[in-house]
Amino acid sequence: MKLIIFGPPGSGKGTYSRGLKEKIGIEKISTGDILRAEIKSGSEIGKKFANYVKDGKLVPDEIVNEIVRKKISEINDNFILDGYPRTIGQANFLLNLTKIDAIININVHDEILVEKISARRICSNPNCDGNYNIADIRKKIDGIEYFLPPLLPKNDMKCDKCGSDLIQRSDDKPEIIKKRIEIYYEQTKPVLEFLKSKNIPIVDVWMCKPPEQVVDEIIDKLKNLNLL
Ligand code: ADP
């Protein structure tokens, strides 16, 4: 099964795709994780795009497309793309490369995003995708009841998976978050309309309850589409 998980920055794409990997064994391809690991490694290519990521801007399509092409060629037909495609150019490249079975579209109010991203903590180990959140959000907006308890590590600010320190992502600062959300609406949201126009089935969910429940809802909806 080939899936895209789509949603604004901080909408839980990484967390849900990790949950899907655990429950149904689908491989996660996160362009954000790959780019951050490359930057941390100090490689020449990483140096070229470090500033884009730091400023919350999109890395040029040619670079990201090549990363995804390589990754897809290494993985059999069972993956979920997290953070890609983010531009119409990337979407065109992807659809020329392969057929996508469904798009998981995450809905969330902007107000929740800013609160959630500012409270995100990630594992400092570039080879680990540990991800936590210290915010405790319980409120109702436009009829949507948000119940998002914190996702805390078992030991104070150490990763449950590998024991490394937890840190805040350098682009998870208020001004940069605003920039990323702005870019999402200008360049990335139109990609959803574009993909819809290609008749790819959409699975809609709200980021309003604990991740495990959202993951189960996604699995049920994939079953309804006969994809599982
Ligand atoms: P989020 O979804 O919270 O913004 P990501 O980890 O997906 O976080 O992305 C972090 C940063 O990595 C982006 O702000 C951008 O600089 C870069 N990036 C990730 N994926 C892409 C992509 N598909 N195209 C261009 N830049 C990307």
Draw up the topology in text.
Elements: E1 2-6, H1 13-24, E2 27-30, H2 31-40, H3 44-55, H4 61-74, E3 79-82, H5 88-97, E4 102-107, H6 110-118, E5 120-123, E6 131-133, E7 137-141, E8 144-148, E9 166-167, H7 174-197, E10 202-206, H8 211-224
Parallel strand pairs: 1-3, 1-4, 2-3, 4-10
Antiparallel strand pairs: 5-6, 5-9, 7-8
Helix pairs in contact: 1-8, 2-3, 4-5, 6-7
Bound molecules: adenosine-5'-diphosphate.
Residues 9-10, 13, 31-32, 35, 52-53, 56-59, 64, 83-84, 86, 90, 171, 180 line the site of adenosine-5'-diphosphate.
Can you give a write-up of this model?
- With 228 residues, the protein is an alpha/beta fold.
- The protein is built from eight helices and ten strands.
- Strand 7 (137-141) and strand 8 (144-148) form a beta hairpin.
- The longest helix is centred in the C-terminal third of the chain and has 24 residues, at 174-197.
- Adenosine-5'-diphosphate binds at residues 9-10, 13, 31-32, 35, 52-53, 56-59, 64, 83-84, 86, 90, 171, 180.
- Adenosine-5'-diphosphate (ADP) binds at residues 9-10, 13, 31-32, 35, 52-53, 56-59, 64, 83-84, 86, 90, 171, 180.
Give the structure's gist in a few sentences:
The chain is 46% helix and 19% strand.
Give the SSE string.
EHEHHHEHEHEEEEEHEH
Average of the residue pLDDT scores: 95
Count of helical stretches? 8
Task: Give the neighbour order of strands across the main sheet.
Answer: 2-3-1-4-10
